[in-house]
Amino acid sequence: MSGEPATPVLTVDPLAEIETAIEDLIEFNDDETREEWEERVEGAKSGLLEKLDQAREGGADVGAVWLLKGKLLNIEDDYSEEAEEALKKATEFSPKNTSAWLTLGDVLWKKEDFEESKKCFETALAVSEKPDKVALQKLSMALRKVGDTPEEKTANILLSIEKAKQAVALDMKDGDSWYVLGNSHLTNFFNSGLSYDVKGLQNALTAYRQAEKTIYGVNEIDLYHNRGEVHRYLEDYVSAIKDFSMAVALDPDYETPVEAMEEIIDMLASIKQLTEKKLDNLPARKRQEFLASLPTEGKKGNYTITPLDALNVGINKDLVSVVKVMGFVTNPKGIPVIVTACDAKETCVAVSIYNINEDLLSFGDELSIYNPVFKQVKLEREGEVAIEYQSIYIERPTTMTVNGK
Predict the structure, then answer these.
(1) How far apart, in whole angstroms, are the C-alpha atoms of residue 340 and residue 324?
(2) S-S: 177 plus which of 24, 56, 97, 167, CB 3.0-4.6 Å?
(3) Of residues 51, 126, 49, the one with CA closest to residue 80
(4) Does residue 240 contact residue 228 with C-beta atoms inside 8 Å?
(5) How far apart are CA 10 and CA 363, in angstroms?
(6) Dihedral angle at the C-alpha atoms of 352, 356, 361, 364, nearest 10 degrees?
(7) Which of 273, 271, 175 is nearest to 218 (CA)?
(8) Is residue 303 within 8 Å of residue 320, measured between CB atoms?
């Protein structure tokens, strides 16, 4: 009838349905395997690409169409040249679209073009109307990958720590930001050459503990693996095996943490055997000569010479233990350097030394260890003690002398 108000026409964003479908494809369903997910992606891809072409022909926002096409083509793990081309067009048509720059950076990361990937993440931050935690996370990751000189690499790694801290500050409950921060600290530890700062490992542990509270998916698996490695470097082997086991429980096909656990057990068994064997391979006269120069009491400067069996667990201030190197332990990670040594009473321990080149030590070298940090290493398997030995931990070689030097 004339005079009646016209029935409103509901307009539907032609890209909204497509975007929802793509976002659904990106995530695994709880009840599907990776193979099922891959089949689901492959089955939906061609239809969605056709709908995107139709939307563009129908007048949809061109930049948004290219962005969704790039996201769709970038779902799989491998680099896609088509995805790169689509996302470059997305940034051309929508140069202030943060998501377009982030996704292009992801594609270039898969291409291992880390410098260009970094530039994309920097641009994403620059065009964003407010600080973006995801852009900061990704920029932190990219910074760890670039640098032509040692100085540039070091500067970039330190900057990556700062960017990760900025991401954490934006959302203290975001596990991914904490995870990225932990990885940045871990990278900084390995970048320091023979000046390893164990505090960097402690910082990584702190970040990983925070990440564990809210992280999930692939990063959760890597979190447990990486944290296991940190525990391993710190010689907390019980915690290392626990974290490696968690990684395997989340991904039974993940072989790296399985191998790590086997390496730890083999190494600890070797240490136990060497410390128990003592000097049994030496003839009586050679053994006597080996031990003869080791003091049993007295002073070295202001430090009191103390036999190994009189040390307490923890730091032993104002004491010095004098031992001789009797064996070398193969540590697959190389850090720390581990030797076995004994004192004048033929009490034997493992000595773990950070920030030293193994080539500087030889069989029979006399080590004077000041303020020795004494540990009991115990590994239980199936509820029973399987491996147990004593160890001295040396973070800095400046707390010991070799043959009086």
Answers:
(1) 8
(2) 167
(3) 49
(4) yes
(5) 85
(6) -30
(7) 175
(8) yes
Compute the distance between CA of residue 87 and CA of residue 94 in angstroms, rounded to an integer: 10
pLDDT digits (tens, 9 = 90+) for 127-147: 999 999 999 999 999 999 999
Q: Which residue, among 12, 13, 99, 103, has the nearest Cα to 61 in the 3D structure?
A: 13
Residue 299, classed as helix, strand or coil, is strand
Structure tokens at 384: 């029973």
For residue 32, how many other CB atoms are within 10 A of its CB? 12
First-to-last C-alpha distance (Å) of the chain: 106
What is the C-alpha to C-alpha distance for residues 54 and 10, in angstroms, rounded to an integer?
20
pTM: 0.86
Alpha helices of 278-334 — where are they, by DSSP H? 284-292
Show the tokens assigned to 53.
Answer: 């072409």
Nearest to 78 by CA among 52, 47, 41, 46: 41
Token pair recorded at residue 402: 């070799």
Q: Provide the token pair at 253.
A: 């096909």
Q: What is the tens place of the pLDDT at every residue in 158-213? A: 999 999 999 999 999 999 999 999 999 999 998 876 667 788 899 999 999 999 99
* DSSP string of 344-359, one letter each residue: TT--EEEEEESS--GG
In angstroms, what is the C-alpha Rg of the chain? 29
Q: What is the DSSP string of 74-118?
A: T-SSS--HHHHHHHHHHHHH-TT-HHHHHHHHHHHHHTT-HHHHH
Beta-carbon contacts of residue 60 (< 8 Å; ≥ 6 apart): 14, 15
